[in-house]
Write a structure and sequence with these properties.
The chain is α+β, with helices and mostly antiparallel strands. Helices cover 44% and strands 17% of the residues. The protein has five helices and six strands. The strands form two sheets. A four-stranded antiparallel β-sheet has the order 1-2-3-4. Strand 5 and strand 6 form a beta hairpin. Helix 2 runs antiparallel to helix 3. 21% of the residues are buried.
Length: 121
């Protein structure tokens, strides 16, 4: 019995396409924010991603939202959005150590990824 080699493209992990929406949170690539939207699409709260330059900044936003908008899974969805945009364990902190990072650069890179993915379609 002979075995066929596996094509290299099948060996790589296929990444999910980037998201623009997590629950009621929407990533606004034009202004690099996450906006919490009401059912009528009014903005209830806005997280400025360019102002997140430390894990303390990120945690502060999470607790700010938790105090004001802790309904309907908003915290979990915010954490999912921050995880996808910032990839914190790779870019912000790992093994309990803070890394230097720029929220602006990471948000811009994510916006570019969204744009590139849209152009593929």
């Amino acid at each position: 019995m002979t075995m066929k080699p596996t094509p290299i493209s099948e060996l790589f992990i296929k990444l999910d396409p980037p998201k623009r929406k997590w629950g009621n949170w929407i990533f606004r690539s034009s202004i690099l924010t996450l906006q919490l939207k009401a059912k009528n699409y009014n903005t209830l709260y806005e997280v400025d991603l360019e102002r997140i330059n430390s894990t303390a900044d990120m945690l502060d936003w999470i607790f700010q939202v938790n105090c004001k908008w802790c309904k309907e899974g908003n915290i979990e969805d915010l954490i999912d959005a921050l995880h996808e945009i910032f990839n914190p364990q790779a870019n912000c902190c790992s093994r309990g150590k803070e890394k230097e990072f720029s929220g602006s650069k990471l948000a811009k890179a994510y916006a570019k990824r969204l744009k590139d993915e849209k152009q593929k379609l």
